[in-house]
Design brief:
Blueprint: H1 23-35, E1 42-46, H2 48-60, E2 68-72, H3 78-84, H4 90-107, H5 109-112, H6 118-121, H7 127-138, H8 144-151, E3 164-169, E4 190-195, E5 204-205, E6 213-214, H9 215-234
Parallel strand pairs: 1-2, 2-3, 3-4
Antiparallel strand pairs: 5-6
Helix pairs in contact: 7-8
Length: 240
């Protein structure tokens, strides 16, 4: 699923997407459920998309219509992750992504000028200041602190009952994993796999260039396939 404005052209409203925007995801999943009522639905989210998926699963609780999910490198605490990208090599990613976000502001200036100080926004150098001046007011939050508090998926993890594999890495340069130190906060549906290495959605294995393997893709498929196989067994081998 493309988030608003990420399909190659700007969307037609001032609002776009953010780390806690689950309404578009919900609309997409409900559409799929209506169009394909007899099919199972599985969802895989990466990075910001992983956080949105986990937040949605927490909001849905036992009412979730998907069979299972996978969340990779989710920012459990948006503020902590924003702060992490202000240090070390992570600043390169922050610079790169802010540049693209500012380009979007340029293209949508005729829609955004009623809501934010565009000139001030274009001078920002960190995610937190960008979110404070831009993301928060456009999407109905008081400020960046209010946005981070309400949009982070961390506070929704305990409400997740749908089976979901959560994969994160200790050496992720962009995502802070401190909020998952207390595993008692995890809902009954969560399986947490915290890897020592893998970077930010990397997980490249192998010693020789050109002969690498991609552990993540294989792990996701094995998990999803196990859920499909379990459903097949429950249905006595009937096709799904």
């Amino acid at each position: 699923m493309h988030f608003r404005g990420c399909s190659g052209e700007p969307n037609r409203r001032a609002r776009s997407y953010h780390g806690g925007e689950t309404r578009d995801l919900n609309s997409t999943i409900q559409y799929l459920r209506t169009k394909f009522p007899d099919s199972i639905i599985l969802a895989v989210g990466y990075s910001l998309g992983a956080g949105v998926l986990l937040k949605w699963l927490g909001e849905q609780g036992s009412s979730s219509v998907i069979t299972a999910g996978v969340a990779v490198a989710a920012p459990f605490d948006l503020r902590a992750s924003a702060k992490k990208m202000e240090h070390g090599a992570s600043r390169l990613y922050q610079f790169w992504l802010l540049r693209h976000m500012k380009n979007t502001v340029h293209r949508k200036s005729y829609l955004l000028q009623k809501h934010i100080d565009i000139a001030k926004l274009l001078k920002t150098r960190t995610f937190e200041t960008f979110d404070d001046i831009g993301t928060a007011p456009v999407h109905g939050f008081k400020n960046a602190a209010d946005y981070y508090l309400k949009a982070s998926c961390g506070s929704y993890l305990g409400k997740i009952t749908t089976p979901v594999l959560v994969i994160n890495t200790i050496d992720d340069p962009l995502i802070s994993n401190n909020s998952l130190r207390d595993k008692t906060r995890l809902g009954s549906g969560i399986i947490l796999e915290s890897c020592q290495f893998g970077g930010h959605i990397g997980f490249v294995a192998g010693l020789l260039p050109g002969c690498s393997t991609y552990w993540l893709e294989d792990r996701i498929w094995r998990y999803i396939n196990s859920k499909i196989s379990s459903l097949s067994a429950l249905n006595h081998g009937s096709p799904i």
